[in-house]
Amino acid sequence: MHQLLRQIPAIHELQQDQRFVQLLETSHVSKAKLTEWLQEAVAHVRKELLAGECSDENDPSRISNTIFQRLIERLSYHSTYKLRRVINGTGTVLHTNLGRARLSDRAIKQVMETAYSYSNLEYNLSEGKRGSRHELIEELVKEMTGAEAAMVVNNNAAAVYLVLKAFANGKNVIVSRGELVEIGGSFRVSSIMEESGAELIEVGTTNKTHFYDYENALTEDTAMIMKVHTSNFKIIGFTKEVSIAELQPLAQRHNVLLYEDLGSGALYDLRKDGIGDEPTVSEALKKGADLVTFSGDKLLGGPQAGIIAGKKKWIDRLKKHQLARVLRVDKMTLAALEATLKEYANEETVRETIPTLKAVLLTKEEIQSRIETFLHDLSPSWHRKIKHDVSQVGGGTMPEVTLDTSLLLLSNSNYTAQSLHNQLRQKEPAVVTRIIDDQIALDFRTIEEHEFADLHRCLKEFE
């Protein structure tokens, strides 16, 4: 066994090998780090030799080759980014697992400029003194929603938590049983309320809650009436809920906060295009909500963020709360959010400039045209079929809404659909598809024309 282990070259000998020298020149890592990984590779090969798992045990040159193969694999793992670009062929516009909303060109440009240089993140340029990051997008949110004031935290769950912690810690919050939603990843509104210190008072039933249910639940310990927009599911049939407009006089009469968590946060009204019945943020505020919270990366079409909008006296208290610093967003998020909000100043062009809205509003005919363009350069070795189907908005938004689409179904006699589906995920960029009728399915609602060349290149490897 000792004779066998003596076949392994010493580290200093391997460092003098031309392969090590070349890797050091091209890998962009230090000699110390490359040597560390080389030692790991040697240890791995030594372990294989001792276990009798190495077929190179009688050939020192092949042992050396195996060591450098392990080192190259380690370098490859290091150089590959874990957060990678994906071509989304599923047709789900706000795909939570694939990063939800894609940013607009304007937002991407603003993020790059902000990241590239210093910025006035917390510096008032006109007065030459310390400023507040809250002020950077507040005016825009006010303009787009009609709110008196606004602030931003790192996601909508954080926004809900901050509102509850600040105004209902140790007090009662009245919520309809039909609105105690789970927002994904097993995170529940009831659990967030519990963590905030608020005491949940459930009223009504799963399908029906009446005005008198809220009225009868009010006590001296009530701090808030909370409405949760059920954006990720729909109850139909024998149902009843109480609107913000109906609850506003009750909340005002008893001097309790009226708060609505909208979740999806639509600024553009998709109902006028015949899509869903999602209320807008401005609508909720006009109906009397003191505070409204919503996401930045759902129907708004921006970066992950939680936006709190409403009456100034409540927002001012939230800005001073200790958790405001804990939950604050960074400069890149603010840059992307500001640029996204500016797109909404023009209601005619926002349909084209915000990728989320553009994808949701695509017609089946427009998608069919994308497919036909893509097929011009697709090899005839692929069997292809166009099939009518439906897309989803996704991201826990408008679950009852289906969007008419056309799918491109592809098959190749040399590969099964499952094999193609699995291997395409490993490409660069990764391609995520569906499988329908033993064929891979690509929904071009979520595949842009600028991605066609990369998709063609990935498919070409299977020809």
Automatic annotation (TrEMBL):
Any matching Pfam family: SelA
| Pathway this chain belongs to | Aminoacyl-tRNA biosynthesis; selenocysteinyl-tRNA(Sec) biosynthesis; selenocysteinyl-tRNA(Sec) from L-seryl-tRNA(Sec) (bacterial route): step 1/1
Protein name (database record): L-seryl-tRNA(Sec) selenium transferase
Which NCBIfam families does its entry note? Answer: selA
Species annotation: Halalkalibacter okhensis
Kindly list the cofactors needed: pyridoxal 5'-phosphate
Quickly give the catalysed reaction.
L-seryl-tRNA(Sec) + selenophosphate + H(+) = L-selenocysteinyl-tRNA(Sec) + phosphate
GN (gene name)? selA
Q: What is its EC number?
A: 2.9.1.1
Q: Does Protein biosynthesis count among this protein's keywords?
A: yes
Instruction: State the Gene Ontology terms under molecular function.
Output: L-seryl-tRNA(Sec) selenium transferase activity
Instruction: Identify the keywords attached in UniProt to this record, alphabetized.
Output: Cytoplasm, Protein biosynthesis, Pyridoxal phosphate, Selenium, Transferase
